Amino acid sequence: MRRRWGRAVIPVIGIAVLVYLFIPIAVVVAFSFNNPGSRYNLTWNQFSLQAWENICGVPGVCASFVTSIEIGIISTLIATILGTLIAFALVRYRFRGRGSTNLLIFLPMTTPEVVMGASLLALFLNLRFPLGAGTVAIAHIMFIISFVVVSVKARLQGMDPRLEEAARDLYADPRATFRYVTFPLVLPGIVGAALLGFSLSFDDFIISYFNAGTLVTFPIYIWGAAQRGIPVQVNALASVVFFIALAVVLISQGVNYRKRKALQR
Amino acid sequence: MVAVVPTTGNAAPAATAQRRARTAYFLMGPGLLWLAVFFAIPFVTLFLTSLQVPVPGKPGQYMPGFALGNYPSALAEYWPQLVRSFVFSGIATVLALVLAYPLAYFIAFRGGRWKPLLLVLVIAPSFASFLLRTYAWKTILADEGPVTSTLNALHLLPEGRILNTSIAVIAGLTYNFLPFMLLPLFAAIDKIDPRLVEAAGDLYASPITAFRKVTWPLSLPGVVAGTLLTFIPASGDYINAQLLGSPNDRMIGNVIQANFIQFRNYPTASALSFALMAIILLLVFGYIRRAGTEDLV
Predict the structure, then answer these.
(1) Same domain, residue pair B176 and B54
(2) CA–CA gap between residue A255 and residue B8 (Å, rounded)
(3) How far apart are CA A165 and CA A187, in angstroms?
């Protein structure tokens, strides 16, 4: 009897927590349809499609949005290449200095952003290096690398070594083995890491704000606007990003699911 | 394209081993150099900046020095914010653990074929801007809002409001860092063989005893990883304190940001950043050592 009660309690709490995670998202999306009475889009006033019809209607919003996408793409591209190479070296080679390499990769993930942002700014200030898109991209590449290494490494370690052995048994040279067996198997891990990297870069505020100078990324725009009232368009743009990201992840999950099903048959 | 040499071969000649090591350094070189230059070296400049002294007669300009006194003076001025950071993030970490554990348990043990979808739902909120989600709590916790009025009707709020109080800041931190707690917890719980829990039940352990003696100890690696991944970023965060709290709820991140960017008081800001990192490392080290013993079980 008590057991049955316990069996019902955990799903109820679990689903309640899941709902809790989505409450602010619901607010963000709903308030993109609000026609706020004042400058502050904080209380519901009236339904309106104004923001959606004129999504770039406020000066600077779309420019900052594009800046964030550009920085996200460049940083993700570079960090994914650098991180993937590190992951291959760590999994496939024995060498001296593994411990310190792992530490150097692990530490950025456990350092508060404010410390990373401040220390990088201290470096740039001391070098009199001009702040802007370049310094923001440098910072983003730095913190994305670790996440790429971790996820590509996991994928490589989870790979069945017999697949590569089979390729060699069939007289594939190392190059062909890599091209036709190893790389396609690791690719989903690399793509996943790149998507995570892009979302981290796109949403980063703290490190960017320290190193941006006068550059305005989308999060920096929101931060500035928060003091004088966030325009409704920001909610609309954030909703678009949310639904696109959700769709991308769900589609990739669906593809994985079908692949697994096909393999089982 | 780099050819990948497998490491499975046995007794490779020394020359080959050396060549392989060289290939490894070649592959890692660019990435590690990036981390060294833009992550490790900045800590050195941060430390040197924290010791700088003002240029006499030129406010806002500093020159190299060895002013160790910058530390005690910065800490004397800002210790309340430093202590508050650790208190807020400690409470938020405990709350996040309490909320995340049932959900992680549910997904791992009852998720079945919905597991991947449920995990997507856990990370999906992160796709909407961190700042906007935090800002949304301003609406949810507003003074006339349903949450505040309900709790006020029950006389549960000491200050009669949530927004612009410590409660709002802690609630925001708990919410924002919950996925960081949840994912490692899930990874650890998902590895537990459900038959072990069943075996405890077969041996007449009550569900609570089975949880205390089997599930919880086996999930500890996830608890340790999750609490660290929540506590560390939360203690450096200043977005929640800025958007949801009053000026009396400012955390050390607010102080560092303001001193670096608005006041251009670089030595103080650097000293505080360095102190924050040092304290976090000490706490983490102590925590991991303690978690390694039976005390935490």
Answers:
(1) no
(2) 32
(3) 19
Which of B35, B175, B206, B215 to substitute to test the interface with A, most A CBs within 10 Å?
B35
pTM (2 d.p.) = 0.88
> Is B45 inside a domain boundary?
yes
Provide DSSP, A41-62.
TTS---B--HHHHTTT-STTHH
Range of the domain at B42: 25-63
ipTM, 2 dp: 0.88
Class of the CATH domain delimited by A60-230 = mainly alpha
CB contact under 8 A, B128 and A25: yes
Rounded to a whole number of angstroms, the distance from the CA of A63 to the nearest CA of chain B is 17
The DSSP 8-state label assigned to residue B10 in this structure reads: S
Q: What is the pLDDT of residues B154-212, one digit of tens each?
A: 888 887 788 888 999 999 999 999 999 999 999 899 888 888 888 888 888 888 888 88
DSSP string, B34-74: HHIIIIIHHHHHHHHHHT-EEPTT-TT-EE----TTHHHHH
Residue B213 lies in a domain: yes
Q: What's B203's domain CATH number?
A: 1.10.3720.10
- B121: closest chain A residue by CA: A18
Q: Which tens digit of pLDDT belongs to each residue from A86-126?
A: 998 888 888 888 888 888 888 888 899 999 999 999 999 88
Alpha carbon of B114: minimum distance to chain A alpha carbons (Å)? 11
Closest-CA distance, A52 to chain B, in angstroms, reads: 17
Length of chain A counted residue by residue: 265
Question: What pLDDT is attached to residue B10?
Answer: 46
Of B24, B36, B139, the CB nearest to A27: B139
Q: Which residues of B touch A43 (CB under 8 A)?
A: 139, 142, 144
**pLDDT band at residue A261, thresholds of 50, 70 and 90?**
confident
Inform me whether the pLDDT recorded for B14 exceeds 70: no
Testing the interface with B: which of A43, A119, A140, A180 to mutate, by most B Cβ within 10 A?
Answer: A119
Interchain pair A246, B127: CB under 8 A: yes
Taking the C-alpha atoms of residue A163 and residue A153, their distance in angstroms, rounded to an integer, is: 17
Q: Is B81 within a domain?
A: no
**Same-domain status, B127 and B196:** yes
Residue B12 in any domain: the answer is no
| Cβ contact B256–A118 (<8 Å) | yes
Instruction: Tokens for A115, please give them.
Output: 């410390």
